[in-house]
Structures are given as structure tokens and as C-alpha cells.
């Protein structure tokens, strides 16, 4: 058996635990710092005797990077090719491959790996080691697997320069590119940490990134979340109540009424890291971005990959998931309606239920509350209905929506998506009441405590007040920019504007977060309908709900006056001043308005511009775009199109978020296109649309849902908190008791 034992355990460096003298030396005398680093690693056991295991395709630089990492840590370095396989076989790896062929080579390579043992070392795997499950399980038991993720085009170029024309698994008719693509599934399965490596990233830089990634992996306690209303003094005094990703997913709203945000901010990607994702698929981009935002202590990389794959591979009708298509001139549409319920909400709500089920403790039942202005409800119900039966037994969903404030098709869809553990309740009020009611229920510790004690049930939120709802939206904004680069529309680094129909500020906040993470977005254009409180706010800095009444429109998802996620953005630009945010929102709650100071308004206007669209202009835009291009915009996308036409200066591309499929809003589309008299029955409306042959097809899943459950009913209640609580208790009793 090949065996190496490391006599000095590895200790990973944390910034907070270094003495201040070391920090000064690190800045002023880098050579001395390297010596201190080595000494510090050898005397502070954090990783213990675990190995750092480098994994990746042939040509990823595992051997070179491994030597540099070993040198920095003063650890033994083991190259599986040179130090294990060739030593065991007494021949070169290429000779062995030629001698026994690919299939037998993999088996013998795996058996050799099973006999290998080491501790406290830096190990560079072969490109094919991950294809042998038993061998990888054996090696991984005592190590942290770091995936050097290099773009396939870069690997092919490197292999060509190294004159490598054959690797394990290649056969006649199978290209190197095909083999490299095939192997990605194994790297995805086994890695604990991913390090993105661009084509021109020096090995020394990659080694530093490996060390940084391992430090992050070992220090999950650094990735905490705080409330937008917490002060720095409160945070420093209350370290015992730290919240992590798993906590904020299950709790939803912070105890003080604020919204959870990462205490250390969002992860930043370098230009090279973003460029390495240009050739990637949507699912690959999602995996990389979400791995940076979710610590593996909360969800391991392999489990996250499984969740993402299940959410997007099986349930979206377009293979590109979120395709970007040219509309006209400098305008592009980001199509976000290819999910099962035909709106952008599916991106988060096919993912979040699976994340939620993974994160919650097994000892408690959960009731997920959601308020919707239209699209969220059916997306939540559909997402949670796809959980395993064992998860559905301990998770129920209650969806509150304005009974007369959504489109007939949206209402039918929500009713049709009800299951034994998921109910829809129509409320005789507007969305703002529904959302405020849920926040008040969460803030009522007496009531939530009663549910826990009496029924063993905790409450959770699935609205975009839940942090996990925002992360998948960051992905599609980043992916849209990368798609424009991939299509040759722009080089990476060129600015792009985005225009987003906005109500609760979640979708546009995700774009702003993508910008903070390094995506070269210039302006985020906030598009409102006649409920234009956000337009006025962005232009003047005054958020004023006095004298405002909600106006029902044909774009109901943005029929919102209180935009919850605006709070997160204000917290970010106010330099995380929780006291200021608390002051602003207390004033909004008590007096119905607040005003930003001049400096804060200036920061906001560096990122945002805003405009609004009338009902008449919305319908006219649908007709005009269809007449000139044959494309049908839904009502929300039409609002954004009108605002983009007015505000965008055409000096760069603008990506308009197409947030829903047009068939969800059939009456408005029929009116806009002047097709026929409108029948009130939702199924009839869809049939009329689908029978009009010049139109693109209606959303197949939407029609299927409405046909299947057209006659189902739902509960309706008054706009009264006690009535809502009564419905909550009824669902808990019927499902969990």
C-alpha cells in the first residue's frame, strides 16, 4: 500500500485570528508574510490531517498548482500520475493506456487508488480518477476535493500545445471535446470546492485561489446573515444569535421586521471568472454562482448540483432555460416564461422548495406562507407539489392572493395548482394587504409560538422577502449578459442596460446584485404601470403612499405600492446603516412616507432610472410589436418595452425582462390585438388564442393545468387578520394533525 503520513497538521488562516503585527507584515513585507504563513499553518491545526485534493480535466494545471500550494504550506505533494500509478505499474501512464485500453485502464487506476493512503498532503489527481466511484470515495474520506474548473476551449488549446491527442475514454468517432464534456458530470459529483480558472490565469494565482477557497470552506461561521434593521453595535453584542443561510431560508423574515442580507456582502467575481462562464450552459452558470452564495456547510456542492439539475433540466420547456432573443434595434428580450407556470417566478420557485426541504430540521413541521400579486402563487404551489412525498408530509403551503386583483387565468391557475398540502385563499383586498398581513403574522411572536407549542408547526415565507428567492434571479441576469457576449453582440466589459417591470423590487434588486458581483450592467431601468410609486421615488427620493390607492391594471404583478425588497437595496447603498433603514421604514409605517437625503438619492440614481406606462400605451405596444415583428409581449413586458423606448439612450444594448408568457393575460392580449369578443371563461380565452393560427402557441403547461382542474374551487376570506389566522390553523389541523 502506498502510504504517506503528514506529521504536521494543516491549519487554515482566518483574517480575524491573525495578530495585528502579522497583518502589518502581510501588507509591507510579503516575503516575511509567506514565512509567517507557513509557520502559522504548521502550528494551528484547522484542517487537521486532511488532504487538499486537486481535481480537474487533463491540462487543468493540477500538478503545477499542487506543487505551489504544497510549497506555500510546507506540505508533501503527491502527483497520482507520477508518484502512484507509474511507481505501482513500473511503466508510464500512456504506455499503460495503450497496453490495456480505456475501460481496463480506468478499473486498474481505480484499484490502485483504493490502495493509496495519505494525510496532511496536497494531492493532484489524474483527469480520469473521478470516473471510478469507489476510488474517489476512498480518497475523499480524508480530504477536501478542489475542482480546478477550466473552460473546455482552454483545455483543448493546452492539450494541443502539449501534443496530447488521446485521453482515457476516447475512441474512434469521439472527440476530445466530447470526452471533456462527458467528464464534467463526475467533477460535479465529487468536488467540495470549485476554483474558476480562466485561460490566462497564472498557476500562482490559481494556487492563491485554492487556498482562499479552502479557507472559506473551513470557516462557515464567517458567512452570517443580518437584518437590514440591525445596528453595528447590536451585531457586535449578539454574536450568539448568528444566522446562517439555512436559518434565513427557514425563517424568512428577521425578528425585528427587517430582511436578511449577508453580513459580509455578496461574493465578487473577477473579470476572468465571468469570462470563464461565457461558454457555459445556464445550469453550469447557476451552479457556479450559487456555490459562491451558499456555503457548502449549508448545502454541499454535490447536493446543490442535484437540486439545480432537478429544478431546471426536468421542468423547463426550453433547453436554454432563459434564452435571450433579439427583438429590434438595440433591444433584446430575456425570456423568463419557459417554466411550468409560465412566469419568471419559476426560476426561484422550482429551486427554493428543494433547498427549503433540505435545510429544515426533520423534527418540525413547516407551513409556508406566501402572498402573491399573481404569478408567485401558482409558482409556489407547483414548486412545493414536486417535492418527495416524505417532504410533503411535513411541509404545507398557504397562498394568499387578492381575490379581485389577479387575471382570470392567474386565478384559475392558482386554484388548479392546489394539492392536499397546498391551499389558495382569495382575500377581499389588494396585494399590499396580503403581504403586510404575512409580515405581521411573522412578527407576532405570541402567535408563532402558539403554533409551535400547540401544533408543532413553524412558519416560513416563500415571498421574495426570503433571501433564497433572490439568488436564482441573480443567475438569469448574469447569464443574459454572458449570452450577449457569447452571441458576439458585445465584447465582455461593454456596458448593457436592463429594463425590468417592477412591483415588489425583487427582480430588479437581483439585477443590481448581479452588478455588485461584477456583471457590467450600466443602468437598471425600473418600469412601472399606473401604480407608479417607484417611478416617483427614484426620480425624487420621496416614497409617499399618502393619498395613493391601488389601481387594478392588466399587468397585476406590478400592481404594488409597498415594495418590500427596496429595503435591501437602501441598506446596501446606505453603507449598511440599519438605524437609518429602521428610521425610514418606521416613518413609512407610521406616517405613510419617507424621503432620502441628497447623498443617498445621488447613489440610487447612479444605478437606477425609472418610468411608467399607461394601460393604453401598454396595449398599443403589444399591438405594435406584434404588427412589426410577429412577437407577442405579455402585459408586463409591454410596460417595460414602453419605458425602455422612452428612457434608454440606445448607446448600448438593453435587455428587457420578459417576465411572463402572453397567454396568462389572454383578455388583455385579445383586446390589444383586436381579435374577437372576449369570453370570461379562462379556458375559452386560451382556446381562442391558440385557434388564431398567426399567433405563437400558448403555453402548453398553462392550458393543461386549466383544462385538468377547471371546476375546482377555493376559499375566500375577508381582509381581516383573525380570519387569515383561522385559515392557517385550519390547514395545519387538516394536514399535520
TrEMBL record:
UniProt-listed GO biological process terms: amino acid biosynthetic process
Bilayer-crossing residues are: none
Pathway involvement of the protein, from the record? Amino-acid biosynthesis
List every position bearing N6-(pyridoxal phosphate)lysine. Answer: 345
Alphabetical list of SUPFAM superfamilies matching this protein: P-loop containing nucleoside triphosphate hydrolases (SSF52540), Tryptophan synthase beta subunit-like PLP-dependent enzymes (SSF53686)
InterPro entries this protein is in?
P-loop_NTPase (IPR027417), Ser/Thr_deHydtase_PyrdxlP-BS (IPR000634), Shikimate/glucono_kinase (IPR031322), Shikimate_kinase/TSH1 (IPR000623), Thr_synth_N (IPR029144), Thr_synth_N_sf (IPR037158), Thr_synthase-like (IPR004450), TrpB-like_PALP_sf (IPR036052)
Which GO terms of the cellular component aspect does the record hold?
cytoplasm
Annotated Threonine synthase N-terminal domain residues = 225-312
Keyword list (alphabetical) reads: Amino-acid biosynthesis, Pyridoxal phosphate
Coiled-coil stretches are none
Kindly name one Pfam family recorded for this protein.
Answer: Thr_synth_N
HAMAP family documented for this protein: Shikimate_kinase
Family designation: Belongs to the threonine synthase family.
Q: What is this protein called?
A: THNS1 protein
Q: What is the lineage of its organism?
A: Eukaryota, Metazoa, Chordata, Craniata, Vertebrata
Which gene is transcribed and translated to give this protein? Thnsl1
Amino acid at each position: 500500500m502506498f502510504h504517506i503520513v503528514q506529521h504536521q497538521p494543516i491549519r487554515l488562516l482566518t483574517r480575524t485570528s491573525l495578530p495585528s503585527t502579522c497583518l502589518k507584515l502581510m501588507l509591507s513585507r510579503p516575503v516575511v508574510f509567506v514565512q509567517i504563513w507557513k509557520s502559522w499553518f504548521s502550528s494551528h491545526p484547522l484542517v487537521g490531517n486532511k488532504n487538499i485534493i486537486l481535481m480537474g480535466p487533463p491540462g487543468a494545471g493540477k500538478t503545477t498548482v499542487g506543487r505551489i500550494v504544497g510549497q506555500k504550506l510546507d506540505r508533501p505533494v503527491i502527483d497520482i500520475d507520477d508518484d502512484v500509478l507509474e511507481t505501482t505499474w513500473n511503466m508510464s501512464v500512456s504506455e499503460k493506456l495503450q497496453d490495456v485500453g480505456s475501460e481496463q485502464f480506468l478499473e486498474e487506476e481505480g484499484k490502485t487508488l483504493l490502495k493509496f493512503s495519505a494525510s496532511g498532503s496536497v494531492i493532484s489527481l489524474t483527469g480520469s480518477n473521478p470516473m471510478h466511484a469507489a476510488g474517489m470515495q476512498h480518497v475523499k474520506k480524508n480530504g477536501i476535493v478542489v475542482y480546478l474548473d477550466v473552460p473546455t476551449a482552454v483545455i483543448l488549446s493546452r492539450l494541443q500545445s502539449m501534443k496530447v491527442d488521446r485521453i482515457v475514454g476516447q475512441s474512434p468517432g469521439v472527440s476530445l471535446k466530447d470526452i471533456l464534456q462527458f467528464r464534467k458530470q463526475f467533477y460535479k459529483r465529487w468536488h467540495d470546492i470549485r476554483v474558476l480558472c480562466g485561460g490566462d490565469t497564472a498557476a500562482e494565482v490559481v494556487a492563491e485561489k485554492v487556498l482562499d477557497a479552502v479557507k472559506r470552506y473551513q470557516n462557515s461561521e464567517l458567512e452570517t446573515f443580518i437584518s437590514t434593521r440591525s445596528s453595528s453595535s447590536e451585531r457586535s453584542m449578539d454574536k450568539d444569535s448568528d444566522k446562517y443561510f439555512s436559518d434565513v431560508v427557514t425563517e424568512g423574515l428577521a425578528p425585528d421586521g427587517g430582511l436578511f442580507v449577508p453580513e459580509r456582502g455578496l461574493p465578487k467575481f473577477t473579470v476572468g471568472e465571468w469570462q470563464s462562464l461565457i461558454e457555459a450552459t445556464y445550469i453550469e452558470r447557476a451552479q457556479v454562482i450559487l456555490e459562491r452564495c451558499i456555503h457548502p456547510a449549508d448545502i454541499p456542492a454535490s447536493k446543490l448540483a442535484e437540486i439545480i439539475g432537478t429544478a431546471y433540466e426536468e421542468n423547463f420547456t426550453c433547453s436554454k432555460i432563459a434564452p435571450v432573443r433579439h427583438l429590434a434595434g438595440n433591444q433584446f428580450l430575456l425570456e423568463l416564461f419557459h417554466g411550468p407556470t409560465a412566469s419568471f417566478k419559476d426560476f426561484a420557485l422550482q429551486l427554493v422548495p428543494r433547498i427549503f426541504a433540505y435545510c429544515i430540521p426533520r423534527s418540525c413541521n413547516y407551513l409556508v406562507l406566501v402572498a402573491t400579486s399573481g404569478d408567485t402563487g401558482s409558482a409556489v404551489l407547483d414548486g412545493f407539489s414536486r417535492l418527495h412525498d416524505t417532504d410533503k408530509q411535513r411541509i404545507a403551503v398557504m397562498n394568499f392572493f387578492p381575490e379581485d386583483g389577479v387575471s382570470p387565468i392567474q386565478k384559475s391557475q392558482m386554484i388548479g395548482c392546489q394539492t392536499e398540502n397546498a391551499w389558495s385563499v382569495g382575500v377581499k383586498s389588494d396585494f399590499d394587504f396580503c403581504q403586510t398581513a404575512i409580515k405581521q403574522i411573522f412578527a407576532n411572536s405570541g402567535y408563532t409560538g402558539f403554533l409551535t407549542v400547540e401544533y408543532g408547526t413553524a412558519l416560513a415565507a416563500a415571498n421574495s422577502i426570503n433571501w433564497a428567492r433572490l439568488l436564482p434571479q441573480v443567475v438569469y441576469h448574469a447569464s443574459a449578459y454572458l449570452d450577449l457576449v457569447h452571441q458576439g453582440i458585445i465584447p465582455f466589459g461593454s456596458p448593457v442596460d436592463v429594463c425590468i417591470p417592477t412591483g415588489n423590487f425583487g427582480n430588479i434588486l437581483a439585477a443590481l446584485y448581479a452588478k455588485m458581483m461584477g456583471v457590467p450592467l450600466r443602468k437598471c431601468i425600473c418600469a412601472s404601470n399606473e401604480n407608479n410609486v417607484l417611478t416617483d421615488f427614484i426620480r425624487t427620493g420621496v416614497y409617499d403612499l399618502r393619498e395613493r390607492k391601488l389601481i387594478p391594471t392588466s399587468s397585476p404583478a406590478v400592481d404594488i405600492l409597498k415594495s418590500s425588497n427596496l429595503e435591501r437595496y437602501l441598506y446596501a447603498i446606505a453603507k449598511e446603516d440599519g438605524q437609518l433603514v429602521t428610521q425610514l421604514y418606521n416613518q413609512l409605517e407610521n406616517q405613510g412616507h419617507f424621503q432620502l437625503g441628497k447623498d443617498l438619492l445621488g447613489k440610487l440614481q447612479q444605478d437606477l432610472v425609472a418610468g411608467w406606462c399607461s394601460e393604453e400605451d401598454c396595449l398599443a405596444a403589444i399591438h405594435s410589436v406584434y404588427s412589426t415583428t410577429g412577437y407577442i409581449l405579455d402585459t408586463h413586458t409591454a410596460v417595460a418595452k414602453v419605458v425602455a423606448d422612452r428612457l434608454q439612450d440606445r448607446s448600448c444594448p438593453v435587455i428587457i425582462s420578459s417576465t411572463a408568457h402572453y397567454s396568462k393575460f389572454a383578455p388583455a392580449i385579445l383586446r390589444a390585438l383586436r381579435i374577437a369578443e372576449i369570453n370570461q371563461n379562462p379556458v375559452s380565452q386560451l382556446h381562442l388564442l391558440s385557434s388564431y393560427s398567426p399567433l405563437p402557441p400558448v403555453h402548453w403547461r398553462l392550458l393543461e393545468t386549466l383544462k385538468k382542474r377547471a371546476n375546482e374551487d377555493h376559499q375566500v376570506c375577508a381582509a381581516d387578520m383573525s380570519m387569515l389566522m383561522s385559515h392557517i390553523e385550519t390547514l395545519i389541523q387538516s394536514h399535520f394533525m
